Amino acid sequence: MHILVVEDDFYNRSMVAHLMRTEGHEVEEVDNPRGALQMVERRAPHLILLDVNFGPKHMNGFAFFEELKRRQIDVPVIFMTSRDELEDKLEGFNMGADDYITKPYAPAEVAARVKSVLHRTYKRAMSQAKPQWRFEGIELDVPNLLVTVKGRRPANLAPTELKLLMHLMQHAEQVVTRDDLLATVWGDEFPGASNIVDSYIRKLRRKIETDPANPLYIRTVRGAGYKFSTKG
Q: What span, in angstroms and rounded, lies between the C-alpha atoms of 184 and 111?
């Protein structure tokens, strides 16, 4: 898994990054939330380990997490902080954080919590899926959250992107309505008026289409929904 560690303390950041690498994960490190946003926009990780307190020139971890949600970036987050007051923990969980670890922490605890969140997030999303989907030059690797278009490098998928693309591929050459995608991928979490489907369709097109403005695979059926297809 690809893990991003966002922490301004060099010692803590290095320790956590080293621990995650020994667990077999690919790790990137950054010491401020603005830099983290740029990295996430470039390539969404499978998990973010996020400090809460940064210097006065930076947004704090809670504000960074809100910005991720505003941009509709779907990445599980574990807060890592010395703020152990109940109110802070409740704020983190109420915002939708996946876990909250207070400093000082034992390496074994960090490893166990990371493993638990990754298992909850990704095993649940893939439990009903076969491991590989292939369709006319495009291959979906479910366990590794990768999509490969013939002649191009594999692209990393966030879990919601994976579920969305998998549902479209399962119904290849059929029109899938926006309401169906909302119900299947997001459940009751979003209202029917939400534009989140359109946002994620745009994200997927940027990853799999040669020309996202003229898509080959994910096509819009005006007034009806979307269709996964390679037919002209």
A: 32
